[in-house]
């Protein structure tokens, strides 16, 4: 059948060594190899694990490609109990292999005994939502103020609460008692690290009760499971996401100074901290020869992710059977990072099947753990527990040594991910290298470190894009956390990291990046009517992003939160720009270069201009080559980009409205060599 995912029975069993009901070959292979299977959920934490986390129904649905999105089935509520559903399935298909099952009959079974995903949730209007929040009404620019009010209205569209029957076993949803804000699109449930930026936006909208309700939901989840899962489904029960709850509580507490609330939530925050400290730590040797405890994303599961079952299985088939369980673990661990997926985790920086997440101690996770130590120390002081406050402050000061001796690269002047087996740094640009600035996990008086990060980013070309900072500079991976996609949380952490600096020039750079990100989001919203989870930042005008395992989603919780936070942070400065300017950092980079001219530290040299620009799509465009027909060399083609892709001439033509159609100018051939033309204009 054409729609079937083609696997022979034997091959399928080798690719997926999960506990599949009735697949005795797999069990036999598992015993022979003495491999312990760790499913994403099981009878210890879920009453319906054999429906949503492993089993013949899950396998059959994906082998026959019933739904275009693997997540659809595992989000569908059952009409009967799990045992009744499985009994009926076995009665109808029990003597057949999953490949032998008739696809139409399988689809009919699903239609009869399951309901549509999302039907176990209902829409809600947050009790503290108002049409014109005071903070948003302070925004000076009238267009941005009106836009902020439109984004504020989206909170109502993204609000969900669970129906009463969810607190049972017929749903994959993890029950929480209060309403919450979902990201949007296929992400129908709560998600962990999204919530930090959602709460930032709720604070901007004055919705502190909703923020508190979401925090209480997380508290209930930690009380049940000991940590916060990736999201609100049982198939996420063995992986988390970046530890942002303590920071989320901080955002709420700073607005309310509710000490009673803080006292009630501190045991929960401690429990989560202990989870990361016990379950996600590893000892490594620093550059000074000392042993340091650092943190990594490291799930225990070694089977396909149910929400991406088909995708994981296809990729695993490209590997030897002996490597597949490690592949599944590294895939799930990358999903735990929130960066699912990025060449950041690939050993060859190209292919998903070379993923090695558990070989890496990520700089951003460790900076977040450092931040947790700092905030917990502050919280214990707020409730009067000075002894514990000192303990966490001391822990943070000690951990700064790990941040320096494990993650900091003196020659590059920046922090990087640490590869544990090779004992080396991954010298590549990813926005994660800025997170220590965001969490202030370095000595504040050591301005050289913050300057070094900015220089490294500028030299890499990370600041050069009109729509914001991309999530990597790796071209062609087709992964959603790579170029050309820019993401709200990453751009926000960069902006905030620079804004928190004591250096006025870096603070000004934070504003320029904020203006760029707001500009891009605003223009896409005006064009599409939606906020998106990610954006293609490479073009003159950004577009919704692409790549990865699913189509780009609209909504969107953390995107709205970041924009509302930036609009209220810079309420009297941000403006709707007539034309987006992609340069942004030249003044700062020149200033920092001058200020460091006497330094003896060896910094990464700026790449040759032609190579530096090679990843810009405009450079390699065939139309560009035909327009710049005199550009025999890459250097001339690079100069040509300053006419058609960026630069003061392009900006001037559009600001002055020289042509009715903006496309007219950028389609016009030059009469002279681009180098001469560029020189004459300047």
Automatic annotation (TrEMBL):
Enzyme Commission designation: 3.2.1.28
Gene3D superfamilies hit by this protein: 1.50.10.10
Known catalytic reactions: alpha,alpha-trehalose + H2O = alpha-D-glucose + beta-D-glucose
Keyword Hydrolase belongs to the record: yes
InterPro entries in alphabetical order: 6-hairpin_glycosidase_sf, 6hp_glycosidase-like_sf, Glyco_hydro_37, Glyco_hydro_37_CS
Gene Ontology molecular function: any one: alpha,alpha-trehalase activity
Keyword presence, Signal: yes
Cited Pfam families: Trehalase
Signal peptide positions (record): 1-17
Family in the record: Belongs to the glycosyl hydrolase 37 family.
Protein name, entry field: Trehalase
Species per Swiss-Prot/TrEMBL record: Toxocara canis (Canine roundworm)
Lineage per the UniProt record: Eukaryota, Metazoa, Ecdysozoa, Nematoda, Chromadorea
């Amino acid at each position: 059948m054409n729609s079937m995912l083609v696997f022979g029975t034997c091959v399928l069993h080798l690719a997926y060594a999960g506990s599949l009901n009735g697949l005795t070959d797999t069990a036999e292979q598992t015993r022979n190899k003495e491999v312990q299977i760790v499913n994403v959920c099981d009878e210890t934490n879920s009453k319906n694990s054999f429906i949503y986390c492993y089993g013949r129904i899950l396998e059959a649905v994906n082998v026959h490609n019933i739904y275009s999105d693997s997540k659809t089935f595992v989000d569908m509520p059952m009409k009967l109990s799990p045992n009744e559903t499985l009994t009926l399935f076995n009665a109808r298909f029990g003597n057949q292999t999953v490949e032998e099952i008739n696809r139409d009959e399988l689809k009919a079974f699903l239609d009869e005994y399951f309901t549509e995903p999302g039907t176990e949730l209902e829409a809600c209007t947050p009790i503290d939502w108002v049409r014109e929040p005071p903070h948003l009404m302070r925004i000076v620019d009238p267009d941005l103020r009106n836009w902020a009010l439109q984004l504020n209205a989206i909170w109502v569209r993204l609000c969900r609460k669970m129906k009463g029957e969810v607190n049972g076993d017929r749903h994959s949803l993890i029950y929480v008692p209060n309403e919450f804000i979902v990201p949007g699109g296929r992400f129908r449930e709560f998600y962990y690290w999204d919530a930090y930026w959602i709460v930032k936006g709720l604070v901007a909208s004055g919705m502190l009760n909703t923020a508190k309700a979401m925090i209480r939901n997380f508290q209930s989840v930690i009380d049940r499971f000991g940590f916060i899962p990736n999201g609100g489904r049982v198939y996420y029960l063995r992986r988390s996401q970046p530890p942002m709850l303590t920071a989320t509580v901080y955002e709420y507490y700073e607005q309310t100074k509710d000490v009673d609330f803080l006292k009630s939530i501190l045991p929960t925050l401690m429990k989560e901290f202990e989870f990361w400290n016990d379950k996600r730590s590893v000892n490594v040797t620093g550059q000074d020869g000392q042993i340091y405890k650092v943190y990594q994303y490291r799930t225990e599961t070694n089977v396909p992710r149910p929400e991406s079952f088909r995708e994981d299985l296809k990729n695993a088939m490209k590997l030897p059977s002996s490597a597949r369980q490690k592949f599944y673990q590294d895939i799930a661990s990358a999903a735990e990072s929130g960066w699912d997926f990025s060449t950041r985790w690939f050993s060859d920086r190209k292919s998903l099947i070379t993923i090695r997440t558990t070989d890496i101690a990520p700089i951003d996770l460790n900076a977040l753990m450092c931040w947790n130590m700092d905030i917990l120390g502050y919280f214990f002081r707020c409730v009067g527990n000075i002894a514990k406050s000192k303990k966490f402050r001391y822990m943070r000061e000690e951990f700064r040594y790990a941040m320096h001796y494990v993650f900091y690269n003196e020659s590059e002047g920046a922090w990087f991910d640490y590869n544990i087996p090779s004992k080396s740094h991954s010298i590549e640009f990813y926005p994660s290298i800025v997170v220590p600035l965001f969490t202030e996990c370095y000595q504040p008086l050591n301005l050289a470190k913050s300057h070094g990060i900015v220089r490294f980013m500028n030299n890499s070309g990370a600041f050069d894009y009109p729509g914001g900072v991309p999530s990597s500079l790796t071209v062609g991976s087709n992964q959603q956390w790579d170029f050309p996609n820019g993401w709200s949380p990453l751009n926000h952490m960069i902006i905030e990291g620079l804004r928190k600096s004591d250096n006025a020039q870096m603070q000004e750079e934070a504003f320029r990046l904020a203006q760029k990100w707001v500009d891009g989001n605003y223009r896409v919203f005006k064009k599409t009517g939606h906020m998106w989870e990610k954006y293609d930042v490479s073009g003159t005008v950004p577009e919704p992003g692409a790549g990865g395992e699913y189509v780009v989603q609209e909504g969107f919780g953390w995107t709205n939160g970041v924009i509302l936070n930036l609009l209220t942070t810079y309420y009297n400065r941000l403006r709707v720009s007539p034309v987006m300017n992609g340069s942004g950092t030249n003044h700062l980079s020149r200033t920092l270069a001058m200020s460091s001219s006497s330094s003896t530290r060896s910094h990464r040299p700026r790449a040759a201009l032609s190579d530096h620009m090679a990843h810009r799509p405009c450079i390699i465009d065939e139309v560009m080559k035909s327009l710049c027909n005199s550009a025999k060399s890459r250097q001339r083609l690079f100069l040509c980009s300053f006419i058609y892709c960026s630069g003061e001439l392009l900006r001037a033509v559009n600001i002055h409205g020289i042509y009715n159609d903006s496309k007219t100018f950028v389609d016009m051939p030059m009469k002279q060599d681009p180098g001469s033309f560029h020189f004459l204009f300047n």
